[in-house]
Write a structure and sequence with these properties.
The protein is of the alpha/beta class. It has 3 domains: 151 residues, Rossmann fold (3-Layer(aba) Sandwich), CATH 3.40.50.720; 163 residues, Dihydrodipicolinate Reductase, domain 2, CATH 3.30.360.10; 82 residues, Alpha-Beta Plaits. Helix content is 36%, strand content 26%. The protein contains 14 helices and 17 strands. Strands 7, 8, 9, 10, 11, 12, 13, 14, 15, 16 and 17 form an 11-stranded mixed sheet that branches. A 6-stranded parallel sheet has the order 3-2-1-4-5-6, sandwiched between helices. Strand 5, helix 5 and strand 6 form a beta-alpha-beta unit. It binds NADP nicotinamide-adenine-dinucleotide phosphate. NADP nicotinamide-adenine-dinucleotide phosphate binds next to helix 1. The site of NADP nicotinamide-adenine-dinucleotide phosphate (NAP) has 25 residues, from helix 1. Pathway: Amino-acid biosynthesis; L-methionine biosynthesis via de novo pathway; L-homoserine from L-aspartate: step 3/3; Amino-acid biosynthesis; L-threonine biosynthesis; L-threonine from L-aspartate: step 3/5.
């Protein structure tokens, strides 16, 4: 074993970074044996230098992250600051000054992954980011390496623990959205400002990363259709139950049936209780992958938290250090397929539509005609009426999102339709 240590610069020492430092210290001997050389924490960049950080030598702490990455003797930079800047500039500088990079930064990778990969390649360095999607769950590496000889057709995932916690609460207790969010906040599962989670921004970043790797195609954050889950109601869960379904916020990356394009989207959807993703409870994450040769695969585990996320970071650190010792680099960006990313209107799926209508003869026929005129075929209809008003629940066969939108617009203009109470896509069948 080499005795000269590999030097690691840790950028950020918060929820994830502090756990990375702890595991590097407590598992130092095992890490050295697995890598073939000891790893040494050479510096820790933070914003607040005065903060007490258990287990961190204060002499290593600096507020000058730029000077740390430019030292010239750093082998690996671990970026766990988060956000776009200064993380982007620091990672680029790290490559230019001879270091490989491990990052957990989904926002940055979804936005600027292509440029960062190019910078890594130009400088002959590694860029690894297993922790950026679904915390501890091995997902990037299985997609990038284990399935490199297969053809992935679909990635369907619960990739945000906060929203899964909220939806699971609504499902199991009958609570409304706000009540479930309040509980998630009180228990520390939701941040004070939950927008990034509940509006689907966090899941959309992960969907962009997953789709890019799965389909060997550049998928930018802007390519991902996004709908949050704040409008999901207890009534939606009641409807889902009647159909033998539950509701999850899903990230869905799909190859079109003809294989010529791909789509990536995030939205709440009904899924059958028999689908493996339906049983993912609490703040857990799970990703279901469908491929030509392997068939169906499911990856499950804790999608966030300091220690689980640090596990993924450390896995990358070991891989990058091994590459470093052997003078090699791991797989870089694979975007050779360059498939076009289709808009949401092209997505084909099933829909559950709940309408408030006048309770009088002929309404059902009128509504059915509108569906038929837009080429959306109806699977089932359920009608409940009282006091001159009625609700009509329509479940469709597979249709494009564009056709469904046209149908809904036309329905809204009918005198007998008082309102469209909810539209929910039905997935996983
Ligand atoms: N938390 C999770 O469960 C989780 C899961 C998966 C991925 N991630 C990703 O991991 C990354 C880190 O998340 P986190 O939860 O650990 O964040 P965090 O707890 O807020 O920690 C951020 C760290 O970065 C430091 N920092 C902020 N601005 C800095 C700057 N300009 N220069 C140097 N240091 C700076 C902070 O310093 P101070 O300590 O002085 O404030 C802090 O130590 C993010 O990209 C996040 O998306 C997190």
């Amino acid at each position: 074993m080499r005795t000269r240590p590999l030097k690691v610069a840790l950028l950020g020492c918060g929820v994830v970074g502090s756990e990375v430092a702890r595991i590097m210290t407590t598992h130092a001997d095992d890490l050295a044996a697995r890598i073939g050389a000891p790893v040494e924490l050479a510096g820790v960049a933070v914003r607040r230098p005065g903060k007490v950080r258990e287990g961190i030598d204060p002499a290593l702490v600096t507020t000058d992250a730029t000077a740390l990455v430019k030292r010239g003797d750093i082998d690996v930079v671990v970026e766990v600051i988060g956000g776009i800047e200064p993380a982007r500039t620091l990672i680029t500088a790290a490559f230019e000054h001879g270091a490989s990079v491990v990052s957990a930064n989904k926002a940055l990778l979804a936005q600027d992954g292509a440029a960062l990969h190019a910078a890594a390649e130009e400088n002959g360095k590694d860029l690894y980011y297993e922790a950026a999607v679904a915390g501890a769950i091995p997902l990037i590496r299985p997609l990038r390496e284990s399935l490199a000889g297969d053809k992935v057709n679909r990635v369907l995932g619960i990739v945000n623990g906060t929203t899964n916690f909220i939806l699971d609460k609504m499902d199991s207790t009958g609570a409304g959205y706000q009540e479930a969010l309040d509980e998630a906040t009180a228990l520390g599962y939701a941040e004070a400002d939950p927008t990034a989670d509940v509006e689907g921004f966090d899941a959309a970043a992960k969907a962009a990363i997953l789709a890019g790797i799965a389909f060997h195609t550049r998928v930018r954050l802007d390519d991902v259709y996004r709908e949050g889950m704040t409008e999901v109601t207890a009534a939606d869960f009641a409807s889902a139950k009647e159909m033998g379904c539950t509701i999850k916020l899903l990230a869905i990356c799909e190859r079109a049936a003809d294989g010529a394009s791909v789509t990536a989207r995030v939205h709440p959807a009904m899924i059958p209780l028999s689908h493996p993703l339906a049983s993912v409870r609490g703040a857990y994450n799970a990703v279901f992958v469908e491929s030509d040769a392997a068939g169906q695969l499911m990856f499950y585990g804790p999608g966030a938290g300091g220690s689980p996320t640090a596990s993924a970071v450390l896995g990358d650190l070991v891989a990058v250090c091994r590459n470093r010792l052997s003078g090699a680099t791991g797989p870089g960006e694979s975007a050779y397929a360059a498939l076009p990313v289709s808009p949401m209107g092209d997505v084909v799926t099933r829909y559950h539509i709940s309408l408030d209508v006048a309770d009088k003869p002929g309404v059902l026929a009128q509504v059915a005609t509108v569906f038929a005129e837009h080429g959306v075929s109806i699977d089932t209809v359920r009608q409940q009426g009282k006091d001159g008003e009625a609700s009509l629940v329509v479940v469709t066969h597979r249709a494009s999102d564009a056709a469904l939108n046209g149908t809904v617009e036309a329905l809204r203009s009918l005198d007998t339709v008082r309102g469209v109470a909810s539209i929910m896509r039905v997935e996983g069948e």
